[in-house]
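I need you to check the entry underneath: sequence plus fold tokens. Let me know what the token row says about the fold.

>
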Amino acid sequence: MSGVRLSRHYVKGMLKRNWGRILFISSESGVQIPAEMVHYGVTKTAQIAVARGIAESLAGTGVTANSILAGPTESEGVGAFVESLAKQQKKPKAEVEREFFQNARPSSLLKRFATVDEVAAMAIYMAGELSSATNGAALRVDGGVVRAIL
């Protein structure tokens, strides 16, 4: 609900200026829910739906609302988790990562974790003026994990 509350609060000023960007950082798990993380997938699906609903309520204005669907990303927490697994399994970190993409996310076309900078690049673009024609969209930065062309 924090995203809904923040959007409600800030959209008033955005509408006064007739310009603004609302971005939800969601996940490919909101589209292709992993069996081991149904709880996570449901929350990410909700974010995508909320962003679309907000966009529809702002139709015809200079304010847009979109979702960014990040795929497996080597955030600080993920990096520490993979390091921990590598130590537990007495394997190199690179091997644990390779096995993750081989077994848990075999549909990945990237076959590695995205960097936080790669995901941030999409957010930077979406926060700017050049993204004005993208509204109500779910934009994938998922490394090809979702097996769909649209």
